[in-house]
């Protein structure tokens, strides 16, 4: 799992006029904690976790911050239930392989590594062309420049879609910036910066 604070996302806030932070996979709250320190400050923070042992403590920790919204749900349900307009947003898609956190979870292709379905939902939202979308764990995708045979166990390898499928999913509206540090990330950046956006 890559850590959001290592990705220097603050540079995108001004460039793309980002107003909101949306995270799939709250975990221990590190991503949210970092997002709350960004400058200029964001106006809204939405995050979800499938597991109550993560969502519960995070909800308690930030219960007095009206900007923060924490949901105990799977990422697809969470994304579908977001308010229709929350301004240009930065999406941190990090809800991967939940069985690793709770062996009672029965995974499917949809829940194990749901980024393609998450992106499809984001693309149904108004003005998604203005959003920054970042996801990690390229190490799990064969054909990605971060994947190396034998580096990770077979369980972690994703075969339900290809790295090329991922890159093409937002090709019409975003450019892809790939970072090979840690587990590898791809950042989908709007083709038009804030000043050119309608």
| Major β-sheet annotation | 7 strands, mixed
Low-confidence parts: none
Kindly report how far apart the N and C termini lie: 35 Å
The CATH H-level homologous superfamily: Vaccinia Virus protein VP39
By CATH reckoning, the class would read: Alpha Beta
User: What is the CATH topology assignment?
Assistant: Rossmann fold
The CATH architecture assignment turns out to be 3-Layer(aba) Sandwich
The helical percent reads 10-25%
Strand order of the largest sheet: 3-2-1-4-5-7-6
Strand content: 15-25%
Q: Assign the structural class, choosing from mainly alpha, mainly beta, alpha/beta, alpha+beta, or little secondary structure.
A: alpha/beta
Based on CA atoms alone, the radius of gyration comes out at 16 Å
* Shape call: globular
Give, in order, the helices and strands. HEHEHEHEHHEHEE
Question: Would you report the number of β strands?
Answer: 7
What average pLDDT do the residues reach? 89
How many domains make up the 3D coordinates? 1
Helix segment tally? 7
């Amino acid at each position: 799992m890559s850590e959001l604070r290592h990705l220097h996302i603050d540079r995108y806030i001004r460039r793309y006029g980002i107003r909101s932070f949306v995270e799939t996979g709250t975990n221990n709250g590190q991503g949210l904690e970092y997002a709350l320190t960004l400058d200029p400050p964001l106006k809204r923070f939405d995050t979800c976790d499938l597991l109550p042992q993560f969502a519960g403590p995070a909800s308690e920790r930030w219960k007095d911050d009206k900007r923060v919204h924490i949901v105990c749900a799977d990422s697809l349900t969470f994304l579908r239930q977001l308010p229709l307009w929350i301004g240009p947003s930065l999406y941190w898609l990090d809800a991967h392989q939940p069985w690793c956190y709770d062996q009672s979870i029965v995974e499917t292709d949809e829940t194990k590594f749901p980024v393609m379905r998450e992106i499809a939902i984001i693309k149904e939202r108004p003005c998604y062309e203005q959003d920054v979308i970042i996801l990690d764990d390229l190490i799990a995708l064969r054909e990605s420049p971060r994947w190396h045979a034998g580096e990770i166990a077979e369980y972690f390898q994703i075969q339900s879609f290809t790295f090329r499928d991922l890159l093409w999913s937002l090709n019409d509206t975003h450019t892809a910036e790939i970072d090979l540090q840690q587990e590898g990330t791809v950042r989908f950046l709007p083709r038009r910066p804030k000043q050119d956006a309608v």
